[in-house]
Amino acid sequence: MPIQYYIYLCLTLFTIGVIGVLTRRNAIIVFMCIELMLNAVNLLLVAFSKMHHGIAITHNGSPSAGIEGQLFVFFIMVVAAAEVSVGLAIIVMLYRNTHSVDINFLNRLKN
Amino acid sequence: MGTTDILFFFLSALAVFSAIMVLVSKSPVHSVLWLIAVFFAISGHYVLLNAQFLAIVNLIVYAGAIMVLFLFVIMLMNLNAETEPQKHVWAKLAGVISGGCFLMVLVSLVRQATDLQNKAVLMKTGDIGLIGNLGKALFSDYVVPFEITSVLFLSAMVGAVVIGKK
Questions:
Q1: How many domains in chain A?
Q2: Residue A68 with chain B: CB contacts under 8 Å
Q3: What ipTM goes with this model?
């Protein structure tokens, strides 16, 4: 499979995430779109890792070439899990104070 | 066109369609369910790329843990389509147009990138995605970042508790 197909797929998914952040007002949906963008990047990292691996083994390179890409994905997932726990706690706190999840309430941080 | 190609295009179409449905759905619960479909499609892509460890971790962590957390928060707040705040239609149109411009610029950039010509992704074969090889790399070369993530998780846990408590 040419690498371009994966790049186009991931760019499409990433753009859908960007459009979601720009067009939705519900803080939880915005957060989910950020997760979507993270997943698009993860998929692209794995595709590049396999591309690098394929090139390395045809040139008799190291048998573990390209493994870094998959480890980065692992660490991105770790950071995403930590981010979600803190972010959802912030959204719950916002809901408790304003009884809404509208992000327009966040345009003023004071009061 | 082999089975791998058909699966690739099917999973890609599923992922893009579900991602669009995440945005289009009025009810937040439906958005979460469509996002789970996106994660399943992406896990299918990982299996196609023979990254089996990441496929399973993606299902367990994203589709399992994180999406349950989202669903829990949405149901805790009792959000539904009636309470959903909506942006003005012009703001939505501006968002879609700017996102489309972003996509267009990036696609044209990829199309003329000479570094990416005639490069293929290794499908189905290659054993770097198996758990043994990933584990060896993780616990030899990347053991310090791996241990630092435990500190990150601890601080995230403390932060979530502190924010949620007041």
A1: 1
A2: 137
A3: 0.91
